[in-house]
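Example for tutorial group B:
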């Protein structure tokens, strides 16, 4: 395919290219509250409501909406809005609409629905009903006590708590609020009430605990009922910060909701029964010591039926003394099992061990259906993500133990811990077992899997698919971990490196809401930030890590239109900026000291052999470019929040720092910056520091260095990957990225894949971790540069976006889908000879500006000819055909 030096820019205003329709239809669907589907127990009384629209006609948009909200489904069905009737409200907005009804309170239950009027003033049908409830927002809402169980060895590691209660009727709604310090599962009348796993989500455990609310109405019966709550330690370990020593602990209460009134009918206290479950745990939950579970099947209850519970031996609970802290509703989805994975091979060794290959790396839990075992037989199950250089299994602290009961049909399955692995080693299982008896389950936060990409180059597809899958292995527990088996920390640097990619691929507004809450809880009084959230102990990083609360909040606003983070955490953003300025000399950020919660001072990290990421000039350049970007984001955030004077101040500081960076780090003779590494060359250009009259020479130097010094390879680390990716996308340097991605040698993504990778590594050479969040920042390039879906930074949530597929050698077709808050964007294009075709689908409520990458002789859109002019597409489906010159 020939590369064209110029492109036809189509900024087409197109309201209706299809022929007029006699029937104009618009429907309302996918109702959400705080971007969650029917959430129970939200953390505020003034929530935001959103919905999506569909229409069979091009050019459709919403002109007005009406929301009604009621305290019961029955009232809503009658269109009796006892809580709120917005009336016909003229607005094109369909996301983040403020609830403006009657004042809500803890335990409020709200049912709501929407209808809209289209641009021809035609009214839609009512949407399906949706609902939400408000959680327990105040300390006085709690009537329950935190309870625990003492064991012979101290605090029980995995206790079961039980209570029997009488219910006179089941006509009302019943909500169970669970606030566990550690993981929990709950059962009513022998049935598990949720498919959540490893709940609740992560928090900064010495500041906050999270509450999950369940609707248990359908599990209750008239008369006697049983409730069981089963706990696991999770992060509540000796030596780690928490709101209580020891643990796990729990408080729980069932609320009866009747005609808008709430009454606590069941509360945890020291009258509950308790017993050991047969589950214990090992491992400190510090780096490389996350251990596993020990299951003594002889101590298991066979089920949670009333008969089994009545025949069990029970001990007493005690009321736990828990320090005052923030107990708030969990505002992200819980973890779920998302995929069942079967082994590709099973091999028995000479030493009576069995090696199982699951075929790909994963993060999750393991289930093994055993053959008949001997009573007391002790089975050890080890996990690793790759073999050593001699093709041997790598043993570590990541293992589980199953002690058999000797009964038929014994099954092992993780409950309160997880592993990240590809390979399993089973020891001391002399009996026969087959692949059919083993299943691994991928576990992650239950966000929407809402993107796809494919192009004509299968090697590029394999890189995309590896990154797309890797991010699912890293996003569990309401945050994104660096590696799920070695550290499990929410590093800000790793987050900054992959946020654009992961938010392009997935709908993560609720997950980032939870994660940024932890960053807020981590800030110190002097404005100092750690490098991770949660922050259980000191960890390495640098400014690119600490400033994550600014950049991630901004990206979340840009990608999802979610302004909550900007409003909530603006004070913490300002605090951190002030802290960074305390370590600035003459306007240039300098190194700050290590302390008890943070160490190292990095620029880039995890670069390939031959690239010195510790070079002092590079560290200084990267850190100051990032601070310049933070000033830029703070200028924009201040503007959005109406803080005019602050916005002007940040703009002045940004411009002053840009000038200093250019003066100090630019080599005018060589047209390079600092150490002349790829990140050093790209970061100033991405941050608009490089003057326009020098940019072309800097680009020439970058390409020359890449070809000659780095042999055409990507030669940068965790920070550099997203910087280079975003710069190349912005400057339409698609072939520059393409050529590097296609390299099979070290370092590179195809080098990983050629060496068996199914998820991305921590280091280019494969050291330490093969499931990691280091090099995933390239993922945005597939959607933005190849497929061409570019967010408009002046129009958050893709209200308006660009379709700018780049002309990249040897790629002859591409297609992609991307979920936005307004609906799914779909685009595909292909080149055959001198014919260029682009198909697009734009959600109702959105518009797009199209820029074709090639010179054309003629253009048709939906079969109609257009002269060269600027075209803007409104919502709908379009077929664009062009003859290439």
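The residue assignment follows.
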């Amino acid at each position: 395919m020939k590369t064209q030096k110029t492109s036809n820019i189509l900024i087409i205003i197109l309201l209706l290219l299809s022929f007029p329709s006699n029937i104009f239809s618009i429907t309302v669907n996918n109702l959400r509250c705080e971007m969650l589907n029917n959430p129970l127990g939200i953390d505020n009384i003034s929530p935001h409501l959103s919905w999506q629209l569909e229409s069979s006609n091009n050019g459709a948009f919403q002109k007005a909406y009406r929301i009604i909200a009621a305290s019961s489904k029955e009232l809503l069905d009658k269109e009796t809005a006892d809580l709120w009737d917005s009336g016909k409200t003229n607005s094109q907005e369909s996301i983040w609409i403020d609830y403006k009804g009657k004042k809500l309170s803890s335990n409020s239950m709200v049912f709501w629905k929407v209808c809209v009027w289209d641009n021809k003033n035609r009214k839609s049908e009512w949407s399906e009903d949706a609902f939400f409830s408000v959680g327990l927002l105040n300390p006085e809402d709690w009537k329950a006590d935190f309870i625990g169980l003492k064991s012979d060895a101290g605090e029980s590691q995995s206790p079961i708590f039980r209570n029997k209660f009488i219910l006179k009727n089941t006509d009302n709604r019943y909500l169970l609020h669970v606030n566990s310090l550690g993981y929990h599962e709950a059962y009513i009348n022998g049935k598990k009430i949720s498919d959540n796993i490893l709940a609740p989500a992560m928090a900064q455990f010495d500041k906050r605990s999270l509450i999950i609310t369940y609707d248990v109405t359908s599990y209750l019966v008239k008369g006697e009922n049983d409730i069981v709550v089963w706990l696991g330690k999770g992060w509540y370990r000796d030596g780690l910060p928490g709101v209580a020593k020891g643990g796990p602990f729990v408080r729980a209460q069932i609320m009866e909701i009747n005609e808008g009134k709430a009454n606590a009918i069941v509360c945890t206290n020291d009258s509950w029964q308790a017993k050991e479950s047969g589950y214990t745990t090992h491992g400190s939950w510090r780096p490389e010591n996350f251990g596993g579970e020990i299951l003594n099947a002889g101590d298991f209850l066979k089920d949670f039926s009333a008969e089994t519970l009545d025949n069990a031996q029970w001990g007493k609970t005690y009321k736990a003394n828990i320090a005052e802290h923030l107990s708030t509703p969990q505002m992200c989805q819980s973890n779920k099992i998302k995929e069942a994975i079967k082994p590709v091979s099973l091999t028995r060794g000479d030493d009576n061990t069995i090696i199982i290959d699951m075929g790909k790396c994963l993060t999750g839990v393991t289930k093994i259906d055993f053959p008949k075992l001997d009573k007391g037989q002790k089975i050890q199950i080890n996990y690793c993500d790759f073999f050593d250089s001699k093709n041997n299994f790598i043993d570590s602290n990541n293992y589980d133990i199953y002690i058999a009961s000797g009964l038929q049909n014994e099954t092992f399955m993780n409950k309160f811990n997880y592993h990240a692995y590809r390979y399993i080693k089973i020891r001391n299982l002399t009996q026969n077992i087959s692949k059919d008896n083993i299943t691994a389950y991928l576990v992650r936060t239950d966000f929407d899997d809402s993107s796809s990409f494919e192009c004509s180059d299968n090697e590029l597809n394999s890189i995309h698919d590896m990154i797309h899958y890797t991010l699912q292995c890293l996003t569990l527990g309401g945050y994104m971990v660096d590696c799920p088996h070695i550290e499990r920390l929410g590093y800000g640097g790793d987050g900054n490196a992959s946020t654009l990619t992961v938010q392009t691929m997935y709908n993560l507004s609720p997950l980032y809401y939870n994660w940024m809450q932890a960053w807020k809880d981590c800030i110190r009084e002097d404005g100092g930030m750690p490098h991770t959230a949660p922050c259980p102990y000191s960890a390495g990083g640098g400014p690119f890590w600490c400033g994550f609360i600014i950049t991630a909040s901004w990206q979340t606003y840009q990608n999802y239109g979610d302004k909550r983070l900007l409003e909530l955490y603006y004070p913490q953003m300002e605090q951190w900026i002030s802290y960074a300025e305390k370590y600035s000399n003459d306007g240039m950020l300098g190194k700050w000291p290590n302390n008890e919660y943070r160490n190292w001072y990095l620029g880039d990290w995890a670069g390939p052999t031959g690239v010195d990421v510790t070079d002092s000039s590079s560290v200084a350049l990267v850190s100051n470019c990032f601070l310049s970007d933070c000033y830029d984001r703070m200028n924009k955030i201040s503007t959005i929040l109406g803080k005019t004077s602050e916005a002007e101040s940040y703009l002045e500081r940004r411009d002053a720092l840009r000038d200093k960076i250019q003066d100090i780090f630019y080599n005018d003779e060589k047209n390079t910056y600092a150490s002349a590494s790829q990140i050093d060359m790209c970061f100033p250009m991405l941050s608009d520091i490089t003057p326009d009259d020098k940019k072309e020479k800097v680009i020439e130097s970058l390409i020359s260095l890449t070809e000659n010094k780095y042999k055409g390879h990507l030669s940068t680390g965790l920070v550099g990957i997203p910087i280079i990716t975003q710069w190349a996308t912005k400057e339409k340097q698609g072939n520059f990225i393409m050529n590097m991605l296609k390299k099979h040698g070290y370092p590179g993504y195809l080098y990983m894949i050629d060496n068996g990778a199914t998820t991305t590594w921590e280091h280019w050479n494969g050291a330490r971790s093969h499931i990691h969040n280091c090099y995933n920042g390239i993922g945005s390039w597939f959607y933005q540069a190849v497929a061409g879906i570019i967010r408009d930074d002046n129009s958050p949530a893709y209200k308006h976006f660009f379709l700018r597929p780049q002309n990249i050698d040897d790629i002859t077709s591409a297609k992609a889908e991307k979920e936005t808050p307004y609906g799914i964007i779909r685009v595909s294009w292909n080149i055959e000879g001198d014919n260029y075709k682009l198909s697009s689908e734009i959600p109702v409520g959105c518009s797009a500006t199209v820029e074709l990458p090639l010179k054309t002789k003629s253009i048709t859109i939906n079969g109609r000819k257009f002269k060269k002019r600027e075209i803007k597409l409104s919502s709908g489906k379009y077929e664009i055909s062009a003859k290439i010159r």
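DSSP finds 16 helices and 52 strands in the chain. Compare this with the pattern of hydrophobic and polar residues in the output above.
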